[in-house]
Task: structure prediction
Amino acid sequence: MTLTRLVLFSGWGIDARIWQPLIACLHARLAHVTETDEQADKQAADEARSRPLEIIAPDWPEEGPQAESQAGSEPTASRASLGGADTLWLGWSLGALRAEALAKDQAPAALVSLAMGPSFIDQAAAEQKIPALAPEVLDTFRKAFARNPTASWQHFLRWQASGEASARDCLRQLRELIGHHPVSREAVLAAGLSELASRRMSLAPQSELPLEFWLGKQDPLLAPGLSAALRAQGQVVAEFEGGHCLPLSATEALADALLARMGLATHVTHISEEA
Result:
């Protein structure tokens, strides 16, 4: 089935501007696919033009550059119009946990959890034991955040970039996109940390919500053994070269994987070699 709408959900402390490189890459890939298909297969080219890809990257309530004006308004990331049988959701980090909860009501065609397992923190009461970080890791960070929110947020940027092949370049690109200071209020960021401590995906049957986990092989925010444990339980897992900042470190690979998953590119491998 071809999907024609993509919704991108950002993670903790990082707004939708993180998606700008991926969105640009997707549009470039689609343009290349259309040009390639026009030469090789006119019917495929006509179909590609008749199914333009709509990309939506909403900010969570009171997050993003317009955070203050969003207070008290309808959150852009919870509108029912974001779901639908033609829509793929991709949630990054905390955004994946939030998206999985929203999906129960809004029913996208499928959900991709990027750089996040079923939970961020090990929850001993969970019926199905899947590796996650020890609670002490987040507890320590939350205490530091309470003392100095801005410094902790900046440390978090360095932490998640540390798994990339070029951590310095990744951190520079991250700061160029979102700035050197958080745009969300401290209370909003603190609430997000509470969500990281408590949220857990239900892992509903694939017939109810097709769910895939796309993970970075060098992600410092994922517990060792997560990919193997998910596969052992029958979950769909794809691994990428990179750490937690896959939207920046694996932009082209993500774009190709998304277009393939949505059925919008028939020559993705060929394009990857030429583009």
